[in-house]
Amino acid sequence: MDKVIILSGLSGAGKTVALRALEDGGYFCIDNLPLTLIEPLLSTLRGRENIVRIGISVDIREKEFLSDANQILSDLKRQYNLEILFLEAEEGVIIRRYKETRRPHPMRSFYREDDLPRAISEEKTLLSPVRDVSDRIIDTSAFTPHQLRQMIISVYSTMEETQPIILSLISFGYKFGVPPNIDLLFDVRFLPNPNFIPELKPFKGTDNVVYEFVLKNDDTKKLLTHITGLFDFLIPQYIKEARPYLTIGIGCTGGRHRSPAIAEELSRYIKERHNLLPKVVHRDME
């Protein structure tokens, strides 16, 4: 087998969405497998030509096995090409998601339904051994299910096998908050705002009329010269360091016009200059 993803995290953080995204990406996926059964499963599947990528979710429902998580997962890493992905979100976001879906929290047998903060806190404590050995932690607070699915597919698609680094560009609006897990952040709110031009306001940054308006500005040209020069230095350094992921945020006020246009132009440059295929997510453009 080529790759094993152990998926864990807080209830309400998006594990079901992420596991389905892995399955859509060609992974053989198993939900809620006890930690002690992972090695026997992988040993059984070893050598199967039709199963080369495996995704396994582990959550609080198997809490009796979590005390040995650190040792079990460390042993598995020595035997397999294994990555541990942990999803989390802010407490307020998780509470809102549970209220919207009206689904019971898995810790409901320990706490009253109206005591979600206490249940979330206890779950964090129980899952801390898994989080401590995770290779990648994603805070999903600012992502919709669709955006999370896009992120998972972009990170764990076959591009990972052919590219030296998985690079993501995220455009966003500051008024909706900065996305978590950003490695490099650029604020483009100083550029002229198409939102205040009546004939441009209805369009998006990916539409030619707005894209060209943003790109033809002299300050935009100077900005892109500085950013691309920085990329020309940093990207080879990150690749040399064997860094697996790089996430770049481009922010404007609302995330609809300027930042999407800049993100698209930077994506084009990276493709041509560095022979990489960045994943572009426009978080707030819709």
Topology:
Blueprint: E1 3-9, H1 15-24, E2 28-30, H2 38-45, E3 53-57, H3 69-79, E4 82-88, H4 91-101, H5 116-132, E5 136-139, H6 145-156, H7 159-162, E6 166-173, E7 184-187, H8 208-215, H9 218-240, E8 245-252, H10 258-274, E9 279-282
Parallel strand pairs: 1-3, 1-4, 2-3, 4-5, 6-8, 6-9, 7-8
Helix pairs in contact: 1-6, 8-10, 9-10
Provide a concise account of the structure shown.
By secondary structure, this protein is of the alpha/beta class. Helix content is 42%, strand content 17%. Helix 2 (38-45) links the parallel strand 2 and strand 3.
Structural overview:
The structure is a single chain. By secondary structure, this protein is of the alpha/beta class. 42% of the residues lie in helices and 17% in strands. Helix 2 links the parallel strand 2 and strand 3. Helix 1 packs across helix 6 and helix 9 crosses helix 10. The protein starts with a strand and ends with a strand.
